[in-house]
Write a structure and sequence with these properties.
22% strand, alpha+beta, three-stranded antiparallel sheet, single chain, 7 helices, disordered N terminus, 208 residues, five-stranded mixed sheet
């Protein structure tokens, strides 16, 4: 016990080491919190969401809140996070489900990016919006990307780490997409990185 106590004594660490350990604890806590939220949502029985009224959502503010949620992880991994959305851009959708989907996409981008860039922008097609989340990380293996785009992604084995890294998040995303009447497309960037396009078929609103 005394050895453990000595190891936990702040005097045994430099300020830099203490900060790094603190960041590691915060990152682990955020990951665990997100994992628990995903599991609870996946374990919920299917229910009829057709009567849920869509809410007005400011997409710029949504991305900013997710950026703040992951701020420690972004700083620890030295990631430049660019929110290039119009600050006045608003849509109608299910705020809770959309937040879960976007949070999981950004979480994956952070996980596989080190010292790079995550960029969020939008594209308008026939009064609908495509939310485009790009990173300069190591990218997704072609076989996994193809499975994700076919919407048949499954964890093949409990010890299959490369699949498990994407498993819970994308399983939950695929569960929620139909409830938003949304779709998703995943592409590899050159020379490296990933782009995820979230297609939201909802009327775009814009505040004045």
């Amino acid at each position: 016990i005394n050895i453990i106590g000595d190891n936990l004594n702040p005097k045994n660490y430099t300020k830099t080491e203490l900060l790094e350990n603190f960041q590691l604890v915060i990152n682990s806590t955020k990951r665990l919190e997100l994992l628990c939220s995903n599991l609870l949502e996946l374990l919920n029985p299917d229910k009829d969401n057709s009567t849920i009224e869509p809410q007005k959502i400011n997409l710029y503010q949504l991305i900013e809140s997710i950026k703040e949620y992951f701020s420690i992880g972004l700083m620890a991994k030295k990631i430049q996070f660019i929110n290039a959305l119009d600050p006045l851009l608003e849509i109608k959708s299910n705020d809770y489900h959309l937040s879960i989907i976007v949070t999981n996409i950004i979480s994956n981008a952070i996980r596989f990016t080190q010292g790079g860039i995550i960029n969020i922008e939008s594209n308008f097609i026939n009064s609908n919006i495509h939310l485009i989340i790009s990173d300069t990380g190591r990218g997704i293996q072609p076989e996994i990307k193809n499975q994700l785009n076919r919407k048949n992604f499954k964890i093949q084995h409990k010890n299959d780490i490369k699949h498990r890294s994407y498993g819970f998040g994308y399983n939950l995303i695929f569960k929620l997409l139909p409830q938003l009447q949304a779709d998703i497309q995943i592409k590899n960037n050159l020379p490296q990185g990933t782009t995820v396009i979230l297609k939201l078929p909802h009327t775009i609103l814009k505040t004045n």
